[in-house]
Amino acid sequence: MAEGEERETGKRKKLRYDFLESPSIKFFCSLCHDILFDPQLSTCCRVSYCEPCIKQLKINEEPCPVCSDKRFPIRPDPGLKEELDALRVHCINNGCHWTGRVKDLEQHLNTLTGDCGYALVSCRYNCGMTFIRKDATKHVCNDSNSTEMHLVCPCTAIGCTSFNNERRRGYSLSRHISDNMEGHLQLLTRYAQSLKEREDAVLMRESNVERVIEEGLREKDGEIAELKESVKELAVLLETKENEILDLNKDVKAFKRASTMLTEERSVQQKAKYNTFERHFIMKDFNLYYQPNAGKLVWNSDPFYTHDKGYKMSFSVDVVFGSLRVSLYLLRGEYDEYLLWPLQGSINILLLNQLNNRNHYTFNFIYDDNTLEEIGNRVKPGRIKSDKNVSASQKLSYDNLLMSSARNVCYLKNNSLVFTVSYINLK
User: Fold this and answer.
1) Which residues pair with 299 in a beta bridge?
2) Residues spanned by the domain of 54
3) CA angle 235-241-246, nearest 5°?
C-alpha cells in the first residue's frame, strides 16, 4: 500500500492514498503513474489521465501520447471518478485509525473543518506554533509562549470584535473590558433579546407543531372511524358471501347426488343395451324343415328388442342345400323414430350345444359402413311387401349339427335346435 503524502496541483492538493486493497490498474494515470486526480478520458484511444497531466500536455500542444492524434480530444470521465471515489482508504496521518471512501478523505483531513485528530494544525492566534488537532486545547492552556495572544474578550461570543484591533495598539484585556462596559452591556441586552425572540420562535414552532399534530390526529381519527365502518360492512359482506358459499356447496352436493343417480341409471341402461339377455328360442320338429320335399319351409323366431326402447328384430332358420341357414332381420318397431340409423354394431346368435354348456356355435352379425343399406336401414313406414328388411344370413352344414363324441357336441337333440341372442353391442 502506498505511503500517504500530498502534492500541490493548482488550488487543490493531489493526495497519495493508503488503500485497504490494491486498486485496479485502470485507476492509475498513464503519464504520472499515480492514482488518477480528476480523471479525464481521451476519446481518440479511450485512455484515462489526471486533469493536471492533460493540462500540461495541452499547454505544450503535444499530441496524444498513445495514438499521436494531434487533436487529442478529451472529456471528463465521471463514471471512472465515481468508481475511484468509492474505493476504501486509511487516513494518511500517523496514529489515526479512520477508514472511509476516497471522496471523504479530503474533508477528513481539512485543517479547518476536518475531524482528524492527528491532522497538523497551526495556532489560531498566530503564535507560530503547530501541533496535532487533538492537542489544541492543551496548547492554548499550557504551551504558548505568547499567553496574551490567547486571551479573548468574554463578550466575543455575543458579538464583540474590537479587542483584536485594540490588542495590536497595546491595549490589555482588562483595559478593553473597562473601556467597553456600556458596549458590552448593549451586546448582552441585544443577545438577551435575541434569545427571547428565538425562544418565542421556538414556542411558536412548537405550538404550530402541536396544532398540526392535533389536526393530523383528528384527521386520522376520522379515517380510523371510516375504516371501522368499512370493516363492519366487509364483515357483513363476508358473512353474506359465506352463506352464499354454504348454499352453493349444498347445491353442488345435491347436483353430485343427482349426477351420481343419473350415472347409475345410465349404467343400468347401458347394461340393458349392451349385455346378454339370454332369451332362448327353440326350433322344434327340425325334420319337417330338412325333408327334401319341405320346399321353402322357414322357421321364424319371435320378435325381440335389442334393448329397452331399442331396435326390433327377429331371425329365421331354414335348410338350403344341406346347410342350416340363419338369417337376421330388422323389423319395423315403435321406437324407430328415436333411434340412430343405419344400425351400427354387432349381434351374436348362439346355437346351443345340448350336451354341455360349452362349445356353442356362434352366428355373428356385424352392421357397419360396409353393410348394405337394405339390411341396416330403418324399415320405412308404408312398406307394402313386408314389415322387415332384407336379412343378413350365415350358414352351418347339417353334419355339424349331429352328435360328435370327438368334439363333444350335439346341437340337434330330440329333433330340436335351441338358439339364444347372446351378445348385443351397438354403437
Assistant:
1) 317
2) 6-141
3) 125
